[in-house]
Design brief:
The protein has helices spanning 6-22, 93-112, 119-122, 142-149; strands spanning 33-35, 46-55, 65-67, 71-73, 77-87, 134-137, 159-169, 174-176. The protein is an alpha+beta fold and 192 residues long. It has one domain (6-172): STM4215-like (2-Layer Sandwich), CATH 3.30.2000.
Length: 192
């Protein structure tokens, strides 16, 4: 089952997905796509920035999960992860905007073609995952995009924004339980 690593695993899965679709055709090596902050993107051509995490309000489990025969795990927490994906080109200024637009177009094509993050994208089987994370493009207005960019010291760049949800984080609270192993019924006849 997933644990707290799932937050970084989703970022790695998005990176892997984009690398498989862009390297070496559009980006020469896999190091050109990675998780980074816009203020510190280095040599990255496609930067994936996790900019927000929120509680998912669609899935609110209330029942504990069985762990073996003698333990119960408290319900998991489900969250939504919000990503900003930005293209960075180091080519000549005359061609930079066009190259970045191509990179963003390919990014959109790849993410829209993979609406659900399946186990093979994570690099390990997630067959027991009850809710595979979905990828959804966000429809933000320009003001919202600029507000997100205000946290950086860089000028605004056209970016695409995605939500990955629901992402399950298991509870660490596990309690032991005793199962019913024997019953004893006593029957009496009542006088009427």
């Amino acid at each position: 089952m997933p644990n707290y690593n799932i937050v970084s695993d989703v970022g790695e899965a998005l990176t892997r997905l984009l690398r498989e679709g862009m390297v070496p055709d559009m980006i020469p090596n896999s190091e050109g796509i990675g998780v980074c902050h816009p203020s510190d993107h280095g040599d990255v051509s496609i930067g994936i920035c996790l900019y927000d995490i929120k509680r998912n309000t669609d899935i609110i489990p209330t029942k504990p999960n069985a762990v073996g025969d003698d333990k119960l795990r408290s319900p998991s927490l489900f969250i939504d992860l919000f990503y900003m994906i930005t293209a960075y080109s180091s080519s000549d200024i005359k061609f930079r905007a066009l190259e970045e637009a191509k990179l963003l177009g390919r990014t959109i094509q790849l993410l829209e073609g993979t609406p659900v993050l399946k186990g093979e994208i994570f690099g390990r089987p997630f067959t027991e995952l009850g809710y595979p994370p979905r990828i959804e493009m966000l429809d933000l207005d320009t003001e919202e995009k600029h507000r997100i960019w205000n946290s950086t010291d860089k000028p605004y760049k056209v970016s695409v924004f995605y939500k990955v949800y629901p992402v399950e984080i298991e509870s660490e609270r596990v309690r032991s339980v005793t199962r019913v192993t024997e019953t004893d019924f006593t029957y009496e006849q009542k006088d009427i």
